[in-house]
Write a structure and sequence with these properties.
Length: about 450
């Protein structure tokens, strides 16, 4: 439903129209000068290769390498459309045959492959656009075929985004769409891309109950800044100029500054979340191996902690231990690339769900069959910071106390007013003393007559 316009919207339109008129001659002058001088336009020519790069591989995180089992995981091998990935021994290599689509980045559960489009970097980029514009579009180079607008996130393939990233974005923003005209994916040589992004989006939608929009017509793309952003920017300019036509008081936070702060606050939240997690379960295993919290998992935990009601609807596969079959060989612990698994001195196996990426590497490494993957809800991904809860409770107690004090003062004031009103009414109702003799004299005169 469209929001009702008010006086502030009119001021914003007047300001924008005036800016357009006052700067309109600049474009004409530049165009005329360029034509007369024979100079080429300074506009950057669209090159799809600017948005693509060959992923870098870190074999230390590879499930196959850590578990020493070539059949432990085949996600990257299956999704790669050009068979450019090879895993041999302790090495993971990406050959020159790579199409630089980034699908391996999105599908690898342990983030073996990395590009500049990492999970956190992409979250921040999309969050800025979604906070500033009415609609944010995620699209690919073949679909757009031009330099992107500020609210268009251009990727080599939409399948580069993982289900965890989609989940995190859908919990925070409701104005994200995919722009893919009909026929784009059908004719693309990245043959596995459509299935990859379809599965990732479908899983995120199932987990959150939200949906990603789909736009297929280029003419329907909306590049309008959001009403809230424009109003915040205008109010800031009014305050900066010292004008108090609309409001008084402190300078409000500008739209752009507010967006930057929101992204910065999210980053701080992730840092605090990791610190809380390390405080709760420890940063190291029994064998002094530092646990690794991957970007995808960190984003998902942050969303779960913010919206804990979603945890019940998220099903994940986690390892379950059968002590009767375990020989305490320790291969499961060695196989975990993020060191989520632990085996204490008494031979008891445990796994920290927050760090576990549900890859199944520990199960593949267990030759005794003591581990199996079972479905669990994501309740363990909700991080509870007891210190913050205590601080929040103390702050709320102070607020309640202040409210109670204010209420008491208010009620006392009402009592005073009521007493004053009663006294005034009593004063008005009481007959004047001087009137009594006059009434007696009038009665005597009436009797004599």
């Amino acid at each position: 439903m469209a929001q009702k316009r008010d006086l502030l919207d009119d001021f914003i339109d007047i300001q924008r129209d005036w800016n357009a008129v006052s700067h309109s001659t600049d474009g004409i002058k530049d165009s005329l000068t360029s034509s007369l001088m024979g100079e080429e336009s300074n506009r950057k020519v669209f090159d799809p290769q600017d948005y693509k790069e060959r992923p870098r591989a870190n074999s230390l995180y590879c499930i196959n390498v850590s578990s020493k089992n070539p059949e432990a995981c085949d996600r990257c091998l299956t999704v790669c459309p050009s068979d450019a990935i090879t895993i041999k021994g302790s090495s993971v290599k990406v050959s020159n045959d790579c199409r630089r689509c980034g699908l391996c980045v999105g599908i690898c559960p342990t983030e073996v492959f990395s590009t500049r489009n990492g999970a956190k970097a992409l979250y921040d980029k999309i969050a800025r656009a979604a906070s500033t514009y009415e609609e944010c579009y995620v699209t690919c180079t073949r679909a757009l075929k031009r330099n992107p607008k500020p609210n268009e996130i251009l990727l080599p393939c939409v399948g580069l985004m993982s289900q965890e990233l989609w989940f995190s974005l859908l919990t925070d923003y409701g104005n994200i769409s995919v722009f893919l005209p009909l026929g784009i994916c059908d004719r693309c040589r990245t043959t596995t891309g459509e299935e990859a992004y379809s599965d990732a989006i479908a899983q995120a939608e199932e987990w959150t109950g939200e949906s990603v929009g789909l736009e297929v017509e280029k003419s329907a793309l909306n590049h309008e800044e959001s009403r809230a952003y424009k109003r915040s920017q205008f109010m800031s300019s009014v305050a900066t100029a010292g004008t108090r036509i609309i409001t008084k008081g402190n300078k409000p936070l500008a739209g752009a500054a507010a967006v930057a702060k929101r992204v910065q606050d999210h980053t701080h939240k992730l840092t605090e979340l990791q610190q809380s997690l390390e405080k709760a379960v420890g940063a190291q295993t029994a064998n002094s191996r530092r646990r690794i919290l991957l970007q995808k998992r960190k984003l998902m935990i942050a969303a779960m902690t913010e919206y804990p009601e979603l945890a019940k609807g998220v099903q994940m596969q986690v390892p379950e231990w059968d002590a009767s079959l375990c020989t305490m060989c320790g291969e499961c612990v060695n196989a975990c690339p993020v060191h989520a698994c632990d085996l204490d001195k008494d031979g008891h196996f445990s796994v920290e769900p927050a760090y576990c990426v549900n890859c199944g590497g520990c199960v593949a490494a267990c030759a005794d069959g003591a581990l199996k993957m079972v479905a669990r809800t994501a309740d363990d991904l909700v991080i509870i910071d007891e210190e913050k809860i205590r601080q929040k409770a103390e702050a709320q107690a102070k607020i309640d106390k202040a409210k109670a004090k204010s209420k008491k003062t208010f009620e006392k004031g009402l009592d005073v007013l009521e007493h004053m009103a009663d006294a005034d009414d009593a004063k008005k109702a009481k007959p004047k003393k001087k009137a009594e003799p006059q009434l007696a004299e009038a009665a005597d005169e009436a009797t004599q007559e």
